[in-house]
Amino acid sequence: MTVIAHKKTALSSRLEATSISIANEDKALALGVLENTPLPTTRTEAWKYTRVARLGKIAFTNQEATISSIDKYNIDSSAPTLVFVNGHFSKELSSNDLPEGISWNLLSDMNAIPATKLKLENEVFNSLNTAHLTGGVQLTIAANVIVGTPVQILHIIKGTEVISNFKVIIDAGKSSQASVVQGYFSEDGENKFCNVTSEISLAENAVLSIDKVQYEDENSFHISTEEVSQERNSLFTINTSTLNGGLVRNNLHIKVNGTNCNSVLNGVYLMKNKQHVDNHTIVDHIAAHCESHELYKGVMDDKSTAVFNGKVFVRPDAQKINAFQSNGNVLLSDNATVNSKPELEIYADDVKCSHGSTTGQLDDEAIFYLRARGLSKRSAHQLMVSAFIGEVLDMIKNENVRSYVDGLLTERFGWE
Amino acid sequence: MIEIKNLHAKIGDKEILKGLNLTVKAGEIHAIMGPNGAGKSTLASVLAGREDYEVTEGTVDFEGADLLDLATEERAREGLFLAFQYPIEIPGVSNINFLRTAINEIREYRKEDPISAKDFMALVREKSKLVELDAKLASRSVNEGFSGGEKKRNEIFQMAMLNPKLAILDETDSGLDIDALRVVANGVNMLKSENNATIVITHYQRLLDYIIPDFVHVLYDGKIVKTGGKELALELEEKGYDWIKAELAN
Questions:
Q1: ipTM field
Q2: Chain B residues whose beta carbon lies within 8 Å of the beta carbon of residue A365
Q3: Mean pLDDT score, A402-409
């Protein structure tokens, strides 16, 4: 028997261990994982269609950088905003105060950050984020408070071979209600890597919605892991819009611990050139009487590729679950690829679950019909694509976010 | 208006139009009748620019332009309109929205200013009334959930909105009850002027009680084999097509 020694990747070779006060056990475990675990390959089931080998060849560093303004990135200009550049807080570009009922702490200012909910064993990117944590923020929403104004967190990555291990912690208190807008952008440079984790918990009866916009450039890697937990009677909504980026991977894990919860996951992705987007979602129904609604739609052009892997678990005690999952794709080019895998694992016997996946092209007959009325081919395509993704975009209830996303579609795809 | 000369077209290896000649002048209504498979819908499709068909011979002059050289949307912008035999449903695309885009792209092509939102809405109100199309239907997704009659009325509504020089109605009467037929025909008649022309493709003489043609043509085996006045339609209704086939055989 031959033993192939694990060749340590360059990935974290030039990074210092984090100076942020994360739990000692987490730090030790994460460093150990990085020491002993190779990067996932396409033989790893969860990474079958997403190649990350390139990341292992780059010796990333983290530096502070400055940007001149957030005007371009201001998704919801009515929202108090916290700005991070390469994971570091930018005081100058951020608002001084958040709305009443939301308190915030920079992770770098905290004395003791609670033990992580992220899985670290075998998880290189979670471990990288933990062991080399650059910065981030904890938002705490007070119990019984309804926060009318959204809070916005913007992250900009800038520079060549620069990494940001960024983290957002959101604790939504009992019977609170709030919404958070998150935007990920980039400026200048090649091979930027934004490796972000979020730990989000909703206490009993909390309502939290997140609108996330990903618009880094084609020279960027972005891996995002959201670990969400829901206690009973809570409602969690996340709308993920991925409109640009070189390689984007979203891991969204929702653990529904309490009864009578509602979980809503919507995603829209539009890619072109050689871009790659991968949405891996898990909804884990542990308790009874809950609902989850998942709708992801994508439009792929040129040689772009998309992966959708949505898994719904219904555990033995989780009776009376309604879980719906749907993924739809349109390919605009013969060279675009979609790998879609909806999965259900049901261990309870009184549940209503459905899942479906479609991948197709725009309807030629419909295009002909529109052109026969005088529309150019381009306008006809645009109308059809807008109609296709409109179903998901309509789920974005924050009108400022919606119009910002519409604006990006115009900017990037020339749509109106 | 339009002059079709020796038009040959095929789909795959199957030749369907085999030397069709037809001239339509402004102010005229022409009816094209014929048995199933004669090539009636093919003619409509070829004129509208459907790419499944290959034109192998012949010319089509439309108001001085070489029609066959134009893309589908350019034909529309030059003033050609096809009312579809089977209007397609397009979920998520609003009727109104796409019509405004269409009108503005046509105007841009003709180097005119875009229509204002106010004028556009006034036009929608006026023209939807013409075909008794509920204003709610006008703003819904294109044909989605429309009944057969509503779809056909929507075709005529769009025609009214776009105000074409030449309208081709491809079996617009099929599947309509008599009330819907009257509404559709009424719409067509109201839009008629000395500057535009209409080609009505139909199976049944019934429609021609409401839209009175100046000429009736019989299309058979890819060619126009007989042309007459409106009385020809009645004769066809009564006797069928066999006598024409027999006439041709002699």
A1: 0.94
A2: 88
A3: 94
